[in-house]
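It is worth pausing here to work through a concrete case rather than discussing structure prediction in the abstract. The textbook approach is simple: state the sequence, then state the predicted structure, then interpret. We follow exactly that order.
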Amino acid sequence: LNLSSHPRYNRIAITIGFSSIDHQTIRSAIAQGGKHARYLLLHVVETAGAMVYGSDIEDQESAKDMAELENYKSQLEQLGYDVEIKIGFGNPKSRIPAIVKDFQADLLVMGAHGHKFFKDLIFGTTVDTVRHRVGIPVLIVKETD
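Step two, the predicted structure:
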């Protein structure tokens, strides 16, 4: 068993949900890739309008989301990380894998909340579907109390 060589991730996609888990998710991703990796912060807008009109919709929510992604990107770049951002529109089960593949990621990092049972089922099916569709390792970061 050779433990001296470990996987080196060069392109890491990170899902951002604009919640308390984001900072922990970003820290976990950076722990995997360090400063040599390129990072993609991605968020999927799931509003009814986004589901119907896709990227043609420019609602207040997506403008606010883009500003928050820009803020995260700026903070990480100031620390010396190579970061890009992307907003997708529609169903996360299909949009996350498509964005991750376009970015040619070799690792996906997703945050998981301590949701109530119903939301756990929905989040669980999203993670499970995404995990099978991306074809790369997926790190699920659980929110700590």
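Step three, interpretation. DSSP finds five helices and five strands in the chain. Strands lie at 11-15, 38-45, 82-89, 107-112, 138-142.
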